[in-house]
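Human: Can I borrow your eye for a moment on a structure tokenisation matter? Separate attempts, laid side by side, tell us more than any discussion would. Could you pick a protein and write out its sequence and tokenised fold? No explanation is needed for now; the record alone will do.

Assistant:
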Amino acid sequence: MQPVAHQLANSSSAGGISSFPSSTSQTAFNVNNLEYRDPKRHSSSTSSYHTTNSATGTTSLGGKRLTNRMTNRYSVTAMYSMAAEQDAEVEDELARAQKRLRDLKSRISAQSKKNFVLERDVRYLDSRIALLIQNRMAADEQREVAQTLEGEVDPNKAGGVTLDERKMHTYANLFFLLQGEPRHMASLCRMVSLSEIDTLLQTVMFTLYGNQYESREEHLLLTMFQSVLSAQFEMTTEFGSLLRANTPVSRMMTTYTRRGPGQTYLKNVLADKINSLIEHKDLNLEINPLKVYEQMLQQIQDDQGSLPDELPKSVAPDTAAANPDVQAIIAPRLTMLMDIANSMLDTIIQHLEMVPYGIRWICKQIRSLTRRKYPDVTDLAVCSLIGGFFFLRFINPAIVTPQAYMLVDGVPAKHPRRTLTLIAKMLQNLANKPTYSKEAYMMSLNPFVDMNKVRINRFLNDLCEVGDFYDTLELDQYMALSKKDLSINITLNELFNTHSLLMQHMDVLSPNDKHHLHVLLDELGPAPPQVPRNQNRAVDLPLYSRWETPIQDITTALMSENNVTQNDILYMETKAIFVHIIRSIPQLAEKRPINLPLIAEKAATAKDSILVRKGIKVKEMLRELEELGVIDQKDDFKIMREEVIAELLHLGNLKEKIVEESASLESVYKTICDHNAYLRSQLEQYKAYLQNVRMNSGKDSSSSGVGVISVGGKEKKLAKSTSQGPYRFTHSQFEKEGIIVESNVPENRRQNLFFTIMSPVPGTFVIAVLFKGREEPLLEMDLKIDDLLERQKDGNTLLDLDYVQLHVNKTLGLLNKLFVKRR
């Protein structure tokens, strides 16, 4: 019998490294009959989607019933990896590069979760700050907001709630079940309210399936998406409302695009284009006739001091659009906008292959589900749904607010910001059915839509051309049972919140009291209440199932449950050991053709005890394979020799790809960390404002004039006078800290300029600009913190003090540091 491994010379995985095939890039084989399958050409239909019955432990695959541990469709590549993995990992440059890449991916996944939590906090405060600014929030609401954000858990002082061993075991079984059978979480995500979805998504996207670069978790998450989308299509009665409303499903899809792979794509594809555009701060491409008319009047008034009688200040949109001067201003802008949008579209289309697999697979499901439910629907209508996801939920938010995705440094200036918004509208109108009910002026850009409609539809269809992952997922699920360290890092509140939601909907999720989910929830009983934020510690929760027998020996399991012979396993292990030896002693491969017996002998007589064991073992394995007639010494073991050489060539190419991928992901990791710092800064400013509001409330409520503030849950009295400062800063200090963005002060006079900041009452500040030798300040400005917050919310990054322009965010940070932290 010819060895199975011989069927795959150039696409085997990295010897000794756990590297499972991706359905988008690897060739798959049926182990039993060596049937060739190319997933790109023969992608599985939705009917091959596998489901698992948790009560019986069986899997249905295309109508065939199998056990969870017997799927009969293993990739030879992955089998080779499993056999090779049993040896110790080689410590060469490739192994070190792979370890660095794994660590980097793990850090990106962990940081993405932190950012999601921060973004949720900022979004929550965004909605509350507006009420505070308008003095429309009651005192009890203020306390609620403050308590929501009060304190972060200190891992060194983590106390509070503890879980007994029995409960931890039950949670371990529950979350193994939830992770391995995505249909439960899919159903739950459809049932929760919009107010509950963010917390659940945190658990689903960043905890349960938080390892964004691990195939099993990613594929399970996508399986969950398929279930959610299928149900959404079933429930939707009108085609026009599909995937358009702000629902838990749409929030899920948007959140998915914010994971590491999506951020990588946006950074690599869009960042350069957007940065080159925002460099032109004064380029005004406004095409709304009413705004153009107003800007034109302002320009005339600035130039001439007054307006001609024939140009009234206020006109209707139609009147503005009919003005010849307005038309003359808009005409060249339309041409330039279409050129910019075409360039952006070219870049997106040219980088089709860089779109993350998961995003493409979701596009494929949208197309498949649409055609199944609406068989008569046009291709144009199908593409509009795909475009609604790809552009509306993924591309356009990054174009409109590139600073939120850390694609640019700081907020773009007013004119580029408007240009980016118009570009996003053009792309959306192109990918979707254009609507001009509110913005008739966008009709002027219809030539862009007409010119690109064919190629955008081709691009959206091409997005869907990816293979399915079901075979790979079956292998990954099988492998999960052999792992002894399968675990998730989860906070107590995530644990209790998921438990609570499951209990609320148990009758729908698991009506049969014999189902595993029902059994586990009965054992757990009522969910514990949410713990205070500063007690919300994270725990490492091991995952395992009491209903599944862990696989102790992969090799034996493969042989017993599949038509894989001992000869096949022996052949793969022998080849793996040779690859390991050569990776450990690279000079052994310098002479060609390589001599396998000589390599085995060199290892057996080496100084390293591990190499000695490998050398002795592989000599015996070579002899055994020859006796079995699998290989022949007469042709110098040609079959295995060629495969070892092919594997080494593959590993050389693999190292280059790993180094390249690591460099790209380092940039993404830095971006995510920068975004984290930005979010933390924003959160601190909001907290500062809240604290000031509370201090003012306490002061106002006290007849004696003594303010009361709650700090760490304790009431603390303030003196009658709450004035602080002044604090003094030099021009050079402000420059060094980046607080001064632009200065109109001559260089030779800057050393004599200084600033003072004081706070007469909480939340109010006085900034003075002074010059040495003069008693009176050159300028004084009264500021309220909500004014600065409103500036920040509106995207105004500069505070103009005539002599200098200050950075709004950094000024807020300084005020927070000086005054709030000192109280």
Notes: The first helix runs from residue 76 to 84. The radius of gyration is 32 Å. Residues 1-88, 697-721 have pLDDT under 50 and may be disordered.
